[in-house]
Design a protein that fits this description.
single chain, alpha+beta, 31% helix, 5-stranded mixed barrel, OB fold (Dihydrolipoamide Acetyltransferase, E2P)
């Protein structure tokens, strides 16, 4: 009698853990929101005026009417208010340019 009871109980216990194992595989394959994947980007050149908005430096691009956040404050600080050419990669989700170089446009 005990054997008959333990067999279904053990089977039910295994089924309880099956959804957790299945979800674990699904979750690990799902990208984390806000994750930054550098592998799919190419280097681009952007032009505009460097401006400071609070503690953040942005590139104001008048041609496409967009402000891009510049991720390197040390490089950007020297060019506040100046027309520049920025070389870097764009994180299009956050509109952030990962700065490689900044050059003033004459």
């Amino acid at each position: 009698m005990k054997k008959l009871f333990l067999l279904p109980a053990g089977f039910a216990l295994c089924l309880c853990f099956a959804p957790a194992i299945g979800n674990a595989r699904t979750l690990s394959a799902t990208p984390i929101q806000g994750a930054y994947d550098k592998g799919n980007e190419t280097t681009k050149t952007f032009s505009g005026t460097v401006m400071k908005q609070g503690d953040v430096y942005v590139l104001n691009d008048k041609s496409d009417k967009t402000n891009y956040e510049l991720d390197d404050a040390k490089k950007a600080d020297k060019f506040v208010g100046k027309a520049v050419k920025v070389t870097g990669t764009l994180d299009s989700q956050n509109l952030t340019i990962h700065v490689i170089t900044i050059q003033e446009i004459s």
